[in-house]
Design goal:
Order of helices and strands: HHHHHEEHHHEEEHHHEEEEHEEHHH
CATH topology of one domain: Phosphorylase Kinase, domain 1
Bound molecules: adenosine-5'-diphosphate, manganese (II) ion
Distance between the termini: 69 Å
Shape: extended
Low-confidence stretches: 1-34, 57-77, 122-151, 223-232, 504-514
Strand content: 5-15%
Mean pLDDT: 73
Structural class: alpha+beta
Radius of gyration: 29 Å
Helix content: 40-55%
Strand order of the largest sheet: 3-4-5-7-6
CATH architecture of one domain: 2-Layer Sandwich
Number of strands: 11
CATH class of one domain: Alpha Beta
């Protein structure tokens, strides 16, 4: 029985699109025209096959393509959600049962069979520790060969004529056959495992090589597929995380997607019930950091050198590094909020999913500064506000935004709100001052172009924010001085093992105001 099929049965009215793919419905006769190159494409073949499979098992489609992800299908019925939760639960039980049977059949036998291929929850996906921020979780790697039972140091076992050495052909052969089980599940090793098959080392090694290259190839294919869907949607595990938030009453409904960026997807949601220790805002933004890793590679420099995260960085796998971005955004938002800077307020963090208050109203996000047309009065007001916020950020939060521009400032309630601070760093970060200078350049240019005559140029702005007094009157020299300062700080770290507490020269930065 399939719980989704039952629980998600349509009550009345037109159902969601996937229901029309029901095998009992009218056959789909639309023909798709395509080129010869398409016909020859392996990728296309895979996709077509997938489509066919999906058509045959519509309920699987429902699980794989959650309803609210598209952004169009706003009706997230709790029935469906419940059904999907049940399906996950069902899959898990099914897998547990498989595991029990596997154990029963194998017993103590040296040669074992595996039902891995029949499992519903892929070993990479199964994760029972959904609660809490589990930085420490170690995932069992299903592809890593178990430690083979070794022959003792002396190189042989047994006595007299029963002696067998580690080079014994029969023992080795059997061991090699058993080790085939550790190849990736999709690698077909035939029936050898069930027979008393002996593989020579040479044959085994050749097979192993092939299995690994196959594994890598399949991973690449998989990644491509992930990539195309990840543009709009999130992966099933993230979806489950989101369902759980709704199920726990934290969120009322997730209405749709407000932004799909390279590194994150942002959803809008209505807040759920307040708990004893938490007030949940009426409208929330959910920022899901993408777990497709490629996009994050070029961001290494922000976090790798941030000493707050330095010790942890080297030990982490990429999945955890992505969670670290989410964690960083949370900490930075909290600092900003404490300093009274208008910004989203953190509601909660779960793995790579950050829930915060929504800047906007009735599902409509506040426009970015680049998208609003402000009166010259508001423009000037916005400028001074940003100048103040940059100073506060630097002085009170000890932060440099590091991606500040009209793209990451929203106009709401007659003022500017700062967002997107996962990459923000402390000023003493090895490139902190360069990031600040870039921020200043963006802000100066935007407001100078926007007709604010009072707007400082980027160098003046930099000095005003940092309190430093760099006198160079041209960009190149200015930049050189910045880099010299950064280097000085790095040398200090080398020599004294810690950073200068702050860059400062002659006291507090001047406060500019209207
Ligand atoms: P990135 O630019 O890295 O994709 P952002 O944090 O800038 O991520 O979010 C992307 C977009 O989502 C923003 O430009 C903004 O339009 C919207 N957004 C993000 N957070 C919020 C929020 N708290 N309230 C309203 N809209 C938001
Ligand atoms: Mn952004």
């Amino acid at each position: 029985m399939d719980p989704v099929g039952v629980a998600a049965a349509p009550d009345a009215g037109p159902g969601p699109a996937w229901q029309s793919k029901c095998p009992w419905g009218a056959p789909n006769t639309t023909s798709i025209s395509c080129s010869l190159a398409d016909v020859m494409s392996e990728q296309l073949a895979k996709e077509l096959q997938l489509e066919e499979e999906n058509a045959a098992f519509p309920e699987v489609v429902a699980v794989a393509e959650g309803p609210f992800i598209s952004g169009e299908n706003i009706d997230t019925s709790s029935d469906l959600m419940l059904a999907q939760m049940l399906q996950m639960e069902f899959d898990r039980e099914y897998d547990a049962q498989l595991r029990r049977e596997e154990k029963k059949i194998n017993g103590d036998s040296k040669v074992s069979i595996s039902f891995e291929n029949y499992r519903k929850v892929h070993p990479y996906d199964s994760d029972s520790s959904e609660d809490g921020v589990d930085w420490q979780d170690t995932r069992h790697d299903p592809y890593r060969a178990d430690k083979p039972t070794t022959t003792p140091r002396k190189g042989f076992i047994g006595k007299g004529k029963d002696i067998t050495t580690k080079h014994d052909e029969v023992v080795c052969g059997r061991k090699n056959t058993a080790r085939m089980e550790n190849f990736a599940p999709e690698f077909q090793v035939g029936d050898g495992i069930g027979m008393d098959l002996k593989l020579s080392n040479q044959v085994f090694n050749a097979l192993k090589q092939h299995a690994y290259s196959e594994e890598r190839r399949s991973a690449r294919l998989h990644e491509k597929k992930e990539h195309s869907t990840a543009e709009k949607a999130v992966d099933p595990k993230t979806r489950l995380l989101l369902y759980k938030m709704v199920n726990a009453g934290m969120l009322e409904t997730i209405t749709g997607c407000i932004s799909t960026g390279k590194e994150s997807v942002v959803f809008h949601a209505y807040g759920g019930n307040a708990t004893e220790d938490k007030v949940i805002p009426p409208e929330c933004a959910i920022k899901v950091f993408k777990t497709t890793l490629n996009e994050f590679k070029n961001r290494d420099k922000y976090i790798k050198d941030d000493y707050r995260f330095k010790d942890r960085f080297s030990k982490l796998n990429p999945r955890k590094i992505i969670r670290m971005w989410a964690e960083k955004e949370m900490h930075n938002l909290t600092r900003m909020h404490n300093a009274g800077i208008p910004c989203p307020q953190v509601v909660m963090l779960k793995k790579h999913v950050l829930v915060m208050s929504f800047i906007g109203q009735d599902q409509v996000p506040a426009p970015k500064l680049k998208d609003v047309t402000l009166s010259s009065e508001d423009m000037k007001k916005a400028y001074y506000q940003i100048l103040n916020m940059m100073q506060q950020l630097y002085k009170e939060c000890n932060l440099v935004h590091a991606d500040l521009s009209e793209y990451n400032m929203l106009w709401h309630d007659g003022k500017v709100w700062l967002i997107d601070v996962s990459q923000s760093v402390e000023p003493t970060h090895p490139h902190g001052l360069e990031f600040l200078f870039r921020d200043c350049r963006n802000v100066s240019q935007f407001f100078q172009k926007g007709g604010v005559a009072e707007a400082l140029n980027e160098r003046e702005l930099f000095n005003a924010v940092s309190g430093l007094n760099i006198t160079a009157d041209n960009e190149v020299d200015f930049q050189a001085e910045i880099e010299a300062l950064e280097k000085m700080n790095e040398d200090h770290v080398q020599n004294h093992g810690k950073k200068l507490s702050m860059f400062s020269s002659d006291g507090d930065p001047p406060i500019y105001d209207e």
